[in-house]
Amino acid sequence: MSSEKTERLINLTLGLLASKRYLTKNEIFRTIAGYSGTPESMERMFERDKDELRSAGIIIEVGGIDPLFEDEQGYLIRSSQIQIQPNDFSKAELILMVLAANYWSQSNLDDSAKNALLKIASIDSGVTEQIDSNNGQLLVQNFNHESSQIRSLISAINSRRYIKFTYKSLDRLVAPIKLENIQGFWYLSGMEDRWMKRFKVIRFESSVIILTNTEPFDKDQMMKDSTFADNSEMSLQKLQAFIRIGKCNNLRKNGLVKPHDGEWESLELDFTDQEQMIRDLLWNGDDVQVIAPTTLKSELLDRLQRLI
Amino acid sequence: MSESAVDRVSRALDLVPFILENPGIEISSLAKKFKINEKQVLADLELIFLCGLPGYTPYELIDLTFEDGLVTVIDPQVLDKPRLFNEIEAVVLVLGLSIMKNVINDSKRLESINNLQEKIAAKFSAIENISFTTSSKPKFYDLVSEAMSSRRSINLTYSSISRDEITQRFVAPRSIYLAQGNFYFVALDRKSNQERHFRMDLIIDCELSDDPGSEEQTISEDANLFDFRINTRNKYLTERYSELFTDISQQGDSYHARGRMNNREWLKRLVISNAPDIELFEPADLKKEIEERALRILALYQ
């Protein structure tokens, strides 16, 4: 890492941020500290510097200097595009943001939450000091995802760039559309070929590579051309069973229970996920006896036989 | 791996406004906040000290002092404001605000949260495509929360999943958390003095006790070692209970998972409900009990 380069990048940022008008390359090379050498080498240096600053989220605006000389381009950084302005957030809003960021303090997104808190503390240090992160408020836990992967996916969705990753042993090229957290797991919806598919992020077998060299995809057009992959292996079924009186609380709360005899009650319950239903039934041991569907009953008995 | 120049630039742009708002901050505190060591903080400050606006006279350079371990920015030049939230920070804030909306009661505050979410999301088109779904707010959330903040205990009627029983409990809530979309709380069971986790939607009834919350020490239990082999086709199981497994590795078409658990009834139910995908090795004495239970279930169908 070169300190000279870091110093030049900071000086370039400050120079473009302080300027009230577009600065030409010549003005930049003449006035910003750190540019030296032949015109070609300074040009190459500047192109690399611009790319690096942009990769850090610093927006460098390019504009014409003189309407009569369209070739002459200039560069500028607007404070409103990279800095939080003094009146952007009220004190009440800063407090809400601190509370919202603190929810993540025991999750894998804690690093990003802490960075947001640092920025809030740079606006009003009193707000973050007032609110103790361990003041007994709600915490998000057991968030078993690589935060770098989630960051990459959010970034790719935001920039509408294709991504590559390995999933179920296949290399995938996907246009990422949507990221959802359902019951603690993140799912990515995206277009692979012309199919809209959903991928469970925890099952990615590689890191996510964002294809920054490709053009951003047209999300709206892509949605129009898409075909949804049919994942509906699940059809609605009805469970009929006997459950012991006072038992099987996880089943009875979702079903229709009627008296049967002194020991058992009858239960009717609609379900779609047979796997989950078998697990729920087996969880209750000999407190439940399945009547129908017969296919589910025989699968359940087969699994039990294999335990012995 | 050495740090890139652009990472250092980003940190410098964050350090200056932070120090400006927190004058006289200790270098050790800065190191902690920015997750770097004190040597790196000093190197960053020395670098920032050399930077400024064209002209580069003392009036145009960023001016700061760092003596006796304390740092103050005298003149930040144009770095007087923090950088905008980046996309992931914005997502964390917006999703956090969504969770907050789920648990608050104040309609005025709800409106403020909606406005704030819109304000943050306005700069990032991706946010409308990112969502975090939780179960709806449990009926007794506010009461548990009140018990926790006022350090009081509560009487619970609770539907225990592992024992399939409705139980009466007397507990002192200590913290509330959200895991896998459900709201839970950790509490000290006042009878056993042991820490227990409760899922809020399984509370049937709940009332605040006049008994002040307990400061008693938790008695830790000796948890049993469990040792499973899980078929790879049931990968969900390893994901669902990943926090329980202290050690997990793949061997051919199965995962070898180990951990500690003091609830033997839960272990038995887990093995039977996931049969035949889990093979239990430890605790060895549970194997016989599992087999007996399987035989009792089969007997119902003969």
TrEMBL record, chain A:
Residues 257-307 form the WCX domain. Residues 151-206 form the WYL domain. InterPro entries: CBASS_pafABC_assoc_protein, WCX_dom, WYL_dom. This is Unannotated protein. It comes from freshwater metagenome.
Automatic annotation (TrEMBL), chain B:
Residues 7-121 form the PafC HTH domain. Residues 236-298 form the WCX domain. InterPro entries: CBASS_pafABC_assoc_protein, PafC-like, PafC_HTH, WCX_dom, WYL_dom. Residues 141-207 form the WYL domain. This is Unannotated protein. It comes from freshwater metagenome.
